[in-house]
């Protein structure tokens, strides 16, 4: 690798070039946090590099900061800009996100150019070689190209290690959930937008550090160096190398920095103008990546292969979940009115009713994802109405969504581990440092996840990537993942929707198995024969009201049900 040429063998020109490339790679690794982990393809990271650079330049020239403190100040400025924009960006689809960040890329250089007093105008802000005084040991470090080379390589190594730890640890699982199926992640107590927005801030900070040091290497902060072209180059570096691959941005940066020589070579062979050729090769590379479906040279992670012995999940404690007189309106639509029901551990309670009768609204309110206008939710007599999704998950109430994609990047056992997120006690800092407590907890969660798969008879799915599963297997995984949260009561929204009878049979067997393991299930279901087969009790909703409740046989005989529901749907 260019970046690890030993300083003693190279002159300042070469060292400046390799240090510069390593800082660029560092910014690209930062961008990979955003693209690969948060699923946010930013076309504006050049702006964060630029803010880091100008932050450092201002800190050096106006505040008298030393080179390291100045670079950190730049990183803080970039992170602040990332925080201001990240929350909004995390809500956007990838295409809108790329457009919005592209505007950001223009905005920062335009504003800098408009205020020459801040940016130094066309000449930029000159920065003399920095000196770091180490008072304790009475030494000076002059930031020569050789020192920059060392700093850049160390920072790049640290960033790569941090990326890998994040990707393969709990944060990687949670982020894969957040970018794969945000609504399903939210239902598991993983706040998708906050997780992705937070990762975007970290990503901006790393780009800011790279800018803060590299500007000192080059000796001048010049706004024109941080324009949209830099943003394109950074994204290109990530995409060429492979978004989501730890070393992808480094490989991509190498490809980019060797591009000019390659361009000269090819131009020479073809007798063309070398300066125009670099742009041509860049465009060809970009088209090649797009044609390959966005895949780069290196593959993204395929999941951690940590082998831990499965630990059988303990049986759920007994519990009763009750709804009392729930009401909920959306504008003029009364989605629920006076709805009461109860479900206890060890039983399957089915909720049936035509489309739009309020079934999903009921489940959302029971799970804490929505608040009723009136009425109460109680678990074992305790009022839960004020509790959100996370406290309800901790209290033992979990929910699966009506239609949901799996968290595509994960293996089955990691998918179940995502369900156990709310039970983790260690946080991102300890995951990053891989402290003993974090490792212990990770092994325990892994063992729990494998135990859940075994206890549900799904060990044959172990080690598979969830992307490769068929429809029924995916539905089973979404149930197993909710069981990963160790609930007493499971709220299941249309588990057999869109399934052939044979597949629905597989799901019915799983529902019975969950009940036999002691869970209480409240199952919204369209398939009446499946309800007959698995339900102990049935509640029928129509237009937000309960029109019948009883055993499946009683409910089917009820004339109001025959008229209102069964009669209509056949
Ligand atoms: P079901 O799951 O039985 O098909 P829902 O609970 O999804 O029914 O919806 C019940 C009614 O409430 C429908 O008329 C639906 O359009 C309305 N509704 C549900 N959620 C919302 C919402 N967030 N905003 C506006 N209307 C909603
Ligand atoms: Mg529904």
Task: Using brief descriptors, characterize the structure shown.
570 residues, alpha/beta, six-stranded mixed sheet, 14 strands, binds magnesium ion
What does it look like?
This protein is of the alpha/beta class. It is built from 23 helices and 14 strands. The mean pLDDT is 91. The structure holds adenosine-5'-diphosphate (ADP) and magnesium ion. Magnesium ion is lined by residues 359-360, 402. Magnesium ion (MG) binds at residues 359-360, 402.
How would you sum up this structure in a few lines?
The chain has 570 residues and is an alpha/beta fold. 55% of the residues lie in helices and 13% in strands.
Q: What molecules are bound to this protein?
A: adenosine-5'-diphosphate, magnesium ion
- How many H/I helical runs? 23
Overall 3D form: elongated
Poorly predicted regions = none
Distance between the ends: 69 Å
In percent terms, what proportion of residues is strand?
Answer: 5-15%
Taking all Cα atoms into account, the compactness measure Rg is: 28 Å
Helix content: 55-70%
With strands numbered from the N-terminus, the spatial order across the biggest sheet is 10-11-12-7-13-14
Q: Mean of residue pLDDT?
A: 91
The tally of beta strands, per DSSP, is: 14
Structural category is alpha/beta
Q: What's the main sheet like?
A: 6 strands, mixed
Protein topology:
Elements: H1 12-37, H2 45-61, H3 67-89, H4 94-114, H5 116-119, E1 125-126, E2 131-134, E3 139-142, H6 145-168, H7 170-180, H8 182-187, H9 192-218, E4 220-221, H10 228-241, H11 248-257, H12 259-270, H13 274-291, E5 320-330, E6 333-344, E7 348-352, H14 359-367, E8 374-379, E9 382-383, H15 389-395, E10 397-400, H16 412-419, H17 428-433, H18 436-455, H19 471-483, E11 489-493, H20 501-516, E12 520-524, H21 528-534, E13 537-542, E14 545-550, H22 552-557, H23 559-569
Parallel strand pairs: 7-12, 7-13, 10-11, 11-12
Antiparallel strand pairs: 1-4, 2-3, 5-6, 5-8, 8-9, 13-14
Helix pairs in contact: 1-6, 1-9, 1-10, 1-11, 2-3, 2-4, 2-9, 3-9, 6-7, 6-9, 7-9, 7-16, 10-11, 12-13, 16-18, 16-19, 19-20
The structure holds adenosine-5'-diphosphate (ADP) and magnesium ion.
